[in-house]
Input
Amino acid sequence: MVGGGAGTWFLVGYILFAIISVLGFGMISSLVFALETHEGRRLNDRTMLIGLILLFVGAVSGCLLLAVGGASGGYALIVQQVTANAVQNMLSPYVNPITAAALAAVTGAAITIYGMATAKATKR
Output
């Protein structure tokens, strides 16, 4: 990811945030609604809470770090007229926190899917 320019980082962060926030959480909401309403299954609240918090925190922090890195790198490149190598060096400290945030989001999504897959049928 460090090989991409600052504008790429900013654009990827923005697009990922739009996709995850609108499509991702919308799909999770519709699946949970269908499971609880139409199938009459009960989700484990603790599992879903942990999964959704991890997914939310990981996705938001990863996208925010991408956007901040892209904006600061773009500012340095365009306004301050620094070299491309200096911008690459400026972006490299963001790589590990973004990777950790992405892993948290993926773990949260996996826990959320597990919580939906193991939902128990309620007695009617």
Summary: The first strand starts at residue 41 and ends at 42.
